[in-house]
Design a protein that fits this description.
- With about 300 residues, the protein is an alpha/beta fold.
- Helix content is about 35%, strand content about 20%.
- The strands form 2 sheets. Strands 1, 2, 3, 4, 5, 6, 7, 8 and 9 form a 9-stranded mixed beta sheet that branches.
- It is globular, with a radius of gyration of 20 Å.
């Protein structure tokens, strides 16, 4: 039975965001959702630490963590996952530093997620669900929710039950395809992903680069050598690891067309092509154990324990 809005207590929400040399507008981005959360977990990968003056209204709910090196985002997500489960939060919001919610839609997003997830007695023992907003599309308060097969890290709300069911995020993936891997595991565990139209997430991918070639105007996301390696390796790994991962369109765009874009349009051609070759070699073998880009001296990332 779907509980009425009055039967649910207000959910406790923890937000996590990973910072790396944050852009000038990062505080404005955070302020579109942090005032409606109960805690903000900041994982700072910035060399020397990010320098941000927090408004008094939210300063007392912020926890900042630094290891002194850039270790990607999976470890940050796992730290926030542990905090969510240990301290009794109902929902975990995962965000990118350059994403924001549009026009005060986050509060409605949380309210609808709570209505659909929390038990009739107001407890947080709900179904394993992840809730996603619309992305770069106008929010509609009265539109229908839509079942999804995937999500991106930024803008997703996880119930505590979903975090328990799917287990930890896979730290061996470091940066890319962490969300796709987690969505596959959540669905394998019987969980659901639901898009709620009450919110719009303003989000951009990569650093798009457009060139004119004859009468064509191709656009590439212009990923760095590091990102090229992780995107190629991790998506090829997913194809090998999950029989249900059937996205030839995604592999064609993110993997097999990359050399053409690099040769015709992008800078750092040698470094990016070498990163692509290494990513293909590791990904086709399903090898996440040898990572030429992971900073040396850091603990080796572990595969997720499904029971953790």
């Amino acid at each position: 039975m779907t509980p009425s809005p009055t039967s649910c207590r207000r959910p406790r929400v923890l937000a996590v965001v990973t910072l790396f040399c944050p852009p000038p507008g990062v505080l404005d981005n955070l302020m579109t959702y942090v005032p409606h959360t109960d805690g903000l977990y900041i994982w700072d990968n910035t060399p020397g630490g990010a320098r941000i003056t927090w408004p008094t209204a939210i300063a007392d709910r912020i926890v900042t963590h630094r290891l002194g090196a850039n270790v990607g985002i999976a470890r940050a997500l796992n730290a926030a996952r542990r905090m969510t489960l240990a301290e009794g939060y109902d929902l975990l919001l995962t965000m990118d530093q350059d994403s924001r919610f549009d026009a005060d839609t986050f509060a409605a997003f949380v309210a609808e997620a709570a209505r659909r997830s929390m038990a009739a007695d107001g407890s947080g023992d709900a179904e394993a669900r992840a809730f996603v907003p619309r992305i770069n599309r106008q929010a509609e308060a009265d539109a229908e929710a839509v079942e999804q097969t995937n999500f991106i890290v930024s803008g997703t709300l996880f119930t505590a039950a979903a975090l328990r069911a799917a287990g930890p995020f896979d730290e061996r993936l470091v940066i890319d395809a962490i969300d796709t891997d987690y969505a596959l595991r959540l669905r394998r565990a019987g969980g659901h992903i639901l898009q709620l139209p009450q919110a719009n997430l303003v989000h951009s991918l990569g650093q798009p680069l457009t060139r004119r070639i004859l009468c064509f105007h191709p656009c590439t996301l212009n990923y760095s050598p590091l990102r090229t390696f992780y995107i190629v390796r991790n998506h090829l790994y997913l194809r090998r690891a999950y029989s249900e991962f059937r996205r030839p369109d995604l592999l064609r765009t993110l993997v097999w067309k990359r050399p053409l874009y690099i040769l015709l349009m992008e800078p750092q051609k040698g470094a990016r092509l070498w990163a692509w070759c290494r990513g293909v070699w590791r990904g086709l073998r399903g090898d996440l154990g040898h990572d030429p880009y992971l900073l040396r001296g850091e603990p080796r990332p572990e595969a997720p324990d499904r029971m953790a």
